[in-house]
Design goal:
Mean pLDDT: 89
Strand order of the largest sheet: 3-2-1-4-5
CATH class: Alpha Beta
Largest sheet: 5 strands, parallel
CATH superfamily: NAD(P)-binding Rossmann-like Domain
Length: 170
């Protein structure tokens, strides 16, 4: 069975973990405060979920979702993610993360910076230089999965996602 590791278990990470369990996957969840702080979240998600450290979630997951405030991207453990598919949901919000000039100026994307941190990890939604197509405010950022008020979300297939990615404009 595929295990999905989560580095970060806030709104996005928790929602994706819940959807993953509903789809029949095991999930290993982590946050910056330690596994004990996730007891209620894990109990709510169900028996296919468990809490661990970020290092263990990275090592255990066949696929790993990184869903932390972008300002903390350098804390993601690189070594256990080598060769694994990593899904980056670390959206850059300057008001939360502080201003990062190369991102503010559009020179690089947050995914490119994360990729440098995780040099051995893999991505599959296209070139990281084009990862702006998945940033907040783009057609793929939320709408294919239903409204933000729907906690359970709606599965969206590859064709729907690829179409939304193509509709993005900078």
């Amino acid at each position: 069975m595929t295990i999905i590791g989560f580095i970060g278990s806030g709104y996005i990470g928790g929602t994706v973990a819940r959807l993953s369990v509903e789809a029949g996957y095991q999930v290993v969840m982590s946050n910056s405060r330690g596994p004990a702080t996730l007891a209620d979240v894990v109990a709510d998600i169900g028996p296919l979920a468990r809490a661990a450290s970020a290092e263990e979630a990275a090592a255990t997951g066949d696929i790993v979702v990184v869903s932390i405030p972008f300002r903390a991207y350098r804390s993601v453990p690189a070594e256990p993610l080598a060769g694994k598919a990593v899904l980056d949901t670390c959206n850059y919000y300057p008001e939360r993360d502080g201003h990062i000039a190369v991102l503010d100026d559009g020179i690089e994307t947050s995914s490119e910076l994360l990729q440098r941190q995780l040099a051995g990890a893999q991505v599959d939604a296209g070139n990281l230089a084009d990862s702006w197509r998945q940033e907040p405010g783009t057609p793929v950022y939320g709408p294919p999965y239903g409204s933000f008020s729907d906690e359970s979300g709606t599965p969206a297939g590859e064709a729907v996602i690829r179409e939304a990615l193509e509709k993005a404009s900078r």
